[in-house]
Amino acid sequence: MLSTAELGGSRSLIESHSFGSPQAHIDVVHPIINRTKDEVVGNVLLTFRMGMLQELLNSAPMLDAYVEIRQPRKNGEPLILAEGREAQLAGAVKMYTAELEGTPWQLLLWPRPKVAALGLPSSLLFGLFGGALLLMGLIIYLCHRFLANAITHDLRTMIKMVQSLHSGNYVKHAPRVMLSNFSNSIETLGNMLQMLSSTLAAQGDAGVGRVSPSAAKSQGFKIVEIEIDSKMGLSGGGVKVAEKDDDNRHPSLPGVEHSGTQASSGAPAVAGGDPDPGKKISPTIFRAYDIRGIVDQTLTEHAAYEIGRAVGTEALTYGQQSIAVGRDGRLSSERLQKALSEGLKSTGREVIDIGLAPTPALYFATQYLSSSSGVMVTGSHNSSQYNGFKIVINGTTLSGDDIQKLRHRIEIGDVQDARSKGGSERQLDLLSDYVERIAGDVQVDRPFKLVIDCGNGVAGQVAPQLFQSLGCEVVELYCEIDGNFPNHHPNPSQPENLADLISAVKEHQADLGLAFDGDGDRLGVVTASGEIIWPDRQLMLFAKDVLSHTPGSDIIYDVKCSRHLEQVIIAHQGQPVMWKTGHSFIKAKMKETGALLAGEMSGHICFADRWFGFDDAFYAAARLVSILAADGRQPEEVFAELPNAIATPELFVEMEEGENHQFMEQLLQLSTFSGAALTTIDGLRADYKEGWGLVRASNTTPALMMRFEAETPQALARIQKQFRNEILEVDSSLNLPF
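Structure (tokenized):
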């Protein structure tokens, strides 16, 4: 809604959200206008509980009539936001309708026959009824006036904080906040200003680093002057803000060198760099949606250096000067990051090292910083001998042909060589900003007791702190970072890796258990009784929440998800879209369709509703806890309402590298699967009346992946038998896990 307001000019917007749920409310967005230039410079958001509209309608003096306030929907019946007491008149007498100006709502009136018999024109009827609505408007106006001083105070506080940095005397403190809604924003602003102030102060005699308008303009920034209303009691007349023309993220300040900057020596991280680049790098590490291999076998430090050169060159073609780099807790990640960074700097790039951090924090950096490119050094959910790179360039996570393009650059030596000039590198810790941003977006109405299993992965840096900040009691399980993963593989999509979490949830009598994979972008969930809530059922709950305020939206899910997910999406006025497995493919499809929610069975959940559209297990878990807390019932009761079926987890048949893709080509040519509806966008999915089965080539490990779902055990056995026959017809030597 705020995004719409930013594009919508000077008119106020009003919408209802989460209709029919305990968190139902009405949002009003009113623009803040620079009257001198007649432009919108910001918006104020006010939230009212939905019940207030009904209470106002009940208290208003009414004609002898039945009244409804409705919100039309693109698909399905309209939402009735408030209604009068004479419901028996609806449909029995003539109805009058009118649009409520400035809202998406309609007013409907059914007068009693004795009123209609007066022969009054509809305009007069609405004129009389409008008097009643004036009372409602007066009450809302008084509420607005009551809040005005508090809102003005907190906005004034935020403007003064920015002014103090501009004048060179910013000192972080804890200002008085009158509205709790502003507290997180003011705290986050304070942290950002403190970090920026420290960076500028490090310039020594150069002063606090005030940036002149001419310097800003020379770097492609535009200057926006915000006039400050004298009624707010602020002196100074205005604030000048440097804003990048093509980017509304936090810009690097023009004309100011960053502290801690190190010039690149230009020397490769690997001694004796190969004069024939790329010829000794295994092509098998360039996979469908990332780069991944076995450390010191297919993935070496030299390979990391060459990949850095290719990524830096590709980023240059998009005008990307800075590249954020992070790493997970694997034993090999730090040295691979160093080699990668040297390769990036050899192309003249600035490396922003965010250090030990989960993958969602790296994605957050590409949204939060001036650069929209980044590389995460991670083996994700795989075992300890694996490592790799997840790559974002110009806001897009690379996959498929774009990954192969990097390989091609390396093989032909098509890379930028700026070693004589050198790049630069600086360190930046943004984990606290990342946690605060999630905590500021998500509200938890009642505290839960949670057991959090980070599988000794880097998620231990974030998850306990985040949920404690949301008011939950946290029991930590394997939250110490250990790249050997001594307790279990960091992969919550496999039930054996959730066994310890299930035991701990029962032992501590917790409300819920949350599990994260090795780099924090996959989520696993278990209930108090130990039931695993697989990601496709999590998506059902998320879809209901998102569609409650954005009916008609696309919801994307991968080929491994339950067919019941499609039914839930349709039942809540959404548009189901099945797509390929893989975080890169899912995110690309989100951009293509404008979907607000997407996810896959492996646990990657992407929210573009109030979030940035990348896969983020921490944000997804926080939204889940928020939804469950707002419901009022125990989490198990909420999950019990979601449709379920008899289903297997992901089943794997290991093969040699590349054999899985060859096998799928043969299966698609030779199989029949009579009586089934076939989907072949990613492997082969056969849907029958009573269930479905899937076989596909994994893109993360050399294996076939299979999954089955049916309404009864007998139907499941029949579907598995059909798949067994078809698969063994192609290769009778396979040892199938079903």
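The chain has 20 helices and 32 strands. The chain has five domains: 2-144, 147-244, 262-429, 433-640, 646-730.
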